[in-house]
Amino acid sequence: MTDETLNTSSATARQSLYEITVGRIGIHNLSLMLALLVLIVVFGSLRGDVFFSTRNLLNMGMGIAILGVLAISQTAVIVSGGLDISVGSIVGLTTVAVASAIQSSEAAGLGIAAGILVGAMAGLVNGVIITYGRVNAVIVTLGTMAIFRGIAFIISNGQSISIFNDAFRQIGIGRILGIPFPIWVLVATAILFQVFLSKSIVGRNFYAIGGNPVVAKFAGINLNRYRVGTYVMSGAVAGIGGILLAARTGSGQPISGSQGLELEAITAAFLGGCAMQGGKGTVAGALLGVAVIGILNNGMILTSVPTFYQLLAKGSLLILAVIFAEYQQNRT
Amino acid sequence: MQDIIEMTGISKRFGVVQALAEVDLSFRPAEVLALVGENGAGKSTLMRILEGVFPPDTGAVVVDGTPAAFAESRDAHAAGIRVIHQEPEIVPDMTVAENIFVGDMPRQGKWFLDRGALNRRTAELLAEFGMSGDLRPTQKCDRLGPAQRQMIEIIRAVRAGGRLIAFDEPTSSLTDDEARRLFRIIRRLRSEGTAVIYISHRLNEVIDLADRISVLRDGRIVSTTPVAEETPDTIAQKMVGRELNTLFHRTPKLQGELVLEVANVSSAHVQETNLQIRAGEVVGLGGLMGAGRSELAKAIFGFDRTTAGTVRMGGKTLPPGNTAAAIQAGIGFAPEDRKHESLLLMRSILENGSMVIPDLVSTYGFFNRSRAKDVVGEAAKAMKIKAPSLDTLAGDLSGGNQQKVVLARWLARSPKLLILDEPTRGIDVGAKSEIYKLIDDLASRGIAILLISSEMPELIGLSDRALVMADGRIQAELAGDQLTEQNILKHAMPETATAA
After folding, report:
1. Domain ABC transporter, which positions (chain B) (predicted)?
2. Do A201 and B358 touch (CB under 8 A)?
């Protein structure tokens, strides 16, 4: 095999349809699709009447829109070898910032700007401490998770801040072609990140940095700049999540609605095939992971699984996802 | 029965690759059998079968006349077979004594470790092997160098009753001095009746040490002969199956303008270094392991932050700790450890080859596959990389081809200065001679080359002049008649030089 000298025109060997399918979609995503199918069959047979209704499907879509956006940017963070567990808190903090900005200015645009800016600033704090303080990302974002939540409580004084601006509310409840706006945001985010991660030089460098930072540094990639940039990106995207949440609920709330988002986003990323040590992960995988979580959440509510048990299921899912990812990593 | 352990009719196939075909070898007590062959010839596969990591498809390992079926390494160890690996497996957080006795520690009663006995017995073993000066029983292993790690693994093997000990490329990470000490240990093992298998790419070593030599090519044993009948040339010919050109090419050439100027540079590991390299010049950097050669190179390249002094490329000062700026200024760097420093093993040749040339393989910041294929494909062809396609994963290539991918990556950038840190480590003879030729070609094209090598013939054969480092400082500059193995060693060990 190694005796032939390099052949630039890729020699295509004959492959079966099965091999081509597995090669294109990947064994990992195929198994996720299978899991999705199983979930759909289970919940469909238990509560088919409600489960397949347009109303419920749109509900589900709304439910996973914010999670999806976060899971996709979390995937990019994990690919680069990091982890951001403060995103749920950043979402909560930005809902408060957005609501305060709109309350005092009555301008929807200012609210959007405040959301993205506050998210990016929070990310900058994470990135600078991780990069220049040389502290493990898990520890830093665990700390800032509490800090950002605390700031949200301080600003709002623990109260929910209502938003009465109709233009802004449309972001959460408006529809284009019958599809709620947040779902369009998810679609746009997915396309943007897919192109970014797979086609752009900066995106490919994410894989290099996560795959092996020493190799990346020898190849002239500025690790510090990338690390800081990654967390700013993660924070800004969490800000977008906060905008969507504030618009949907019509309020800025320091706690409700944003809690547990980081758990679900990280779970979705690992379900989607991210490797704990970085260098691996795809947008398509993250979306499938999000779908699994969305259907599971929705189905558990429909079949009246008590909330306490839902938490058990979610936590177990994260651990199973990582075990599965590590198993695959070790096999290859 | 004279042959204690044999391998008979061993064949092994991985997918379409016939890794081993009908291999017969016998290992005699008190004899060193050298096993040589190019990378991919099947040496490692043979060792894994011998050690019971996986079974052969056909054939068997025969111990004392009885075919043994090893299910795992533990079975092979029980039969007295031990392999000393290239990267010795030791527990960094345990002491030397604990590492030697791991799994079989002396006890006090049923439950407690007898630390006194442990350290005493370790001290005895160390003294027996003349290693008391290198290792203390109570020393933690996390800071040990490769030579010391190897010593631990050897003692562990001998202590556990190893009667066949195989050394897989043991000197590739050792300095010449450490290698000589290893040879003394191996000769000692032989005199005590141990059968030794010695795998190495360094043919001079092999001839010096071995009693018999077996050449493996494409999974088959080409010959097994007493070593007295062979020379490095005859062995190399058998390994490659064709005539080799003379190993070193040196084209005398004109030297151009000043390319690199290092003035009083210090970093965490180097002190006040000065050096200059002109276009078309090959400057060697010699010294022992840990002398600071790689560290100096990393400081020049901006991988390590300098604490003092300046690095100038073409008269312009480089910002410290900035590899991107160094690359921009025309420096290319092929680091020592291909697997951990140069290549993303899970990524393709194309991606690895594109890594330092984003501007050449992208349009508006987006990766342009067809452009990348042109650029990397051309460099790969110029380097004669052997692979099924550009999409082959770097991790699936042989050491020689991996190194060629690294070089191809830099050639696509047309650097002014190329830093090569141990460019031929672990590479087979054929690929080595190609890389030597390439270095000469590059220099005649006006590229300045800084060559770090622990292989003396390589350093002397390729360099126009050589700097010798010790203790993080440049101790001497040698050129012409002065550039000899003896002189390099003298300056590499300054304390012995003053003692003499």
Report:
1. 5-243, 254-496
2. yes
